[in-house]
Design brief:
Its EC number is 2.7.13.3. With about 425 residues, this protein is an alpha+beta fold. The protein has helices at about 1-40, 50-75, 90-100, 100-140, 160-200, 205-255, 265-290, 295-310, 325-350, 385-390; strands at about 150-155, 155-160, 315-320, 355-360, 365-370, 395-400, 410-415. The chain has three domains: about 1-200, no CATH class; about 205-290; about 295-415, 2-Layer Sandwich (Heat Shock Protein 90), CATH 3.30.565.10. α1 (about 1-40) packs antiparallel against α2, α4 runs antiparallel to α5 (about 160-200) and α8 (about 295-310) packs parallel to α9 (about 325-350).
């Protein structure tokens, strides 16, 4: 084990020295970058230039910090997951991220630390390697110095001949090399550990990233679930339902061709025919509750318009620019509108109802308002509990306002960012 360690030492010294010597100019560059960031903030007063420039400067600082983080991890032989680096859409969102994101403040603290520690550490490494290598180069050239100002080694010992040049040069080079051999790897590892610690995501950031990952994961699952429901609905509609229709038709034809005195056979055919028709009705109901076929045929806008037209009371529909929505969100929105319209028709005593769907900042807003008597009570099975469950399955929110005397307003927000 000792032999193996001795075999690794030269490599460790070289890697540590390279890490420190590379960190010296990058720390100087970071020192220059800090005033530029301040200029970026101040430039907001110049036609709002900083609103665009500063977020991108902070993004550049994030990439710069991540590059240093990767170097530190490689030196220590550890694995680190890359932090997110990107800008959201919109100038306001970009500025808000640059100013309020905890990771941005972390990058700024790292930059100050990099300047404060990277430059001294790099200078120490430069001095150590420079003393060792420079002595080897300069000692044989002692004769180029004048007698009044001879070459001095070991701090203040003049070189007067080849003997003192080689002897003192060997001692100084060995001393500088020994110090560098011992200091460089340890100093580099200490700096690298400090870099990783400074850029380690906080518990708050890790939790936020985990929530984001889970949100994306669940959105993918919901999309896959919606696609699977559409496939099952299509298979049932085109397969099982079509076969039931064909069987019912054949049974009907068979009943018509039987003589009047068929007796028990006619009764059996009648029961089989009626059973097939009842099975078709139940299958249609199942298909509609799984994924309404009208969503596939007309989309959410057409489906909401159609369900409002058959609501049993005058319904006004207002649709904003909805764009492409995940299948699960479309299905939930359709059922929420349908249930709300049913509630209004059965319980509210309303003369009119208004349905409004809009999309803003990655959320679908559904508003159903009627002019009825109000006083909606969820405990009496008015369907609001079902609406809440559908919204909760997608991390949505439901607000119900139904004072006595009316009106009743149901507002649902569903996340729909894809």
């Amino acid at each position: 084990m000792g032999a193996a360690r001795r075999g690794r030492e030269p490599g460790q010294v070289w890697r540590g020295g390279r890490y420190l010597l590379t960190g010296l100019p990058t720390a100087m560059a970071t020192m220059v970058a800090l005033p530029l960031l301040a200029v970026g903030v101040l430039s907001t007063a110049v036609g709002g230039l900083g609103l665009v420039a500063f977020p991108r400067m902070m993004l550049g600082l994030r990439w710069w910090a991540e590059w240093h983080r990767g170097r530190a991890a490689a030196l220590l032989g550890v694995q680190v997951s890359a932090r997110r680096a990107g800008l959201p859409k919109g100038v306001r969102a970009q500025w808000r991220q640059a100013v309020r994101d905890p990771a941005s403040r972390q990058d700024l603290r790292w930059a100050l630390r990099q300047v404060a520690t990277g430059i001294p550490a790099g200078l120490i490494a430069l001095a150590g390697f420079g003393a060792a290598v420079g002595t080897v180069i300069v000692a044989p050239l002692w004769w180029l110095f004048t007698e009044g100002e001879p070459l001095q080694l070991l701090g203040a010992v003049p070189v007067t001949g080849w003997g003192s040049a080689l002897g003192l040069g060997a001692v100084q080079a060995a001393a500088a090399g020994a110090v560098t051999w011992w200091v460089a790897p340890r100093l580099a590892r200490g700096h690298a550990r400090g870099c990783l610690a400074a850029l380690e995501p906080s518990a708050e950031v890790q939790l936020a990233e985990r929530v984001g990952e889970l949100t994306e994961s669940r959105a993918g699952v919901m999309d896959a679930h919606g696609a699977e429901l559409r496939r099952i609905e299509r298979d049932l509609h085109d397969g099982a339902q079509a076969r039931l229709v064909a069987i019912a038709m054949r049974l009907g034809v068979a009943r018509e061709t039987l003589p009047d005195d068929a007796g028990a056979l006619a009764k059996l055919l009648q029961e089989a025919h009626e059973g097939a028709e009842e099975a078709m009705t139940e299958l249609r109901d199942v298909i509609r509750t799984m994924y309404p076929p009208i969503l596939t045929d007309r989309g959410l806008e057409g489906a909401v318009t159609a369900v409002a037209a058959g609501a049993g009371l005058p319904a006004e529909v207002e649709l904003g620019e909805l764009g492409r929505l995940p299948a699960a969100v479309e299905a939930a929105a359709y059922f929420i509108v349908a249930e709300s319209l049913t509630n209004a028709a059965k319980h509210s005593g309303a003369a009119r109802v208004r349905v409004r769907l809009t999309r803003h900042d990655g959320r679908l807003l559904i508003e159903i308002t009627d002019d009825g008597t109000g006083g909606a009570d969820e405990s009496r099975g008015t369907g609001i509990i079902g609406i809440r469950r559908r919204a909760a399955a997608l991390d949505g929110t439901v607000r119900v306002s139904s004072p006595a005397g009316g009106p009743t307003a149901v507002t649902v927000e569903l996340p729909c960012a894809s």
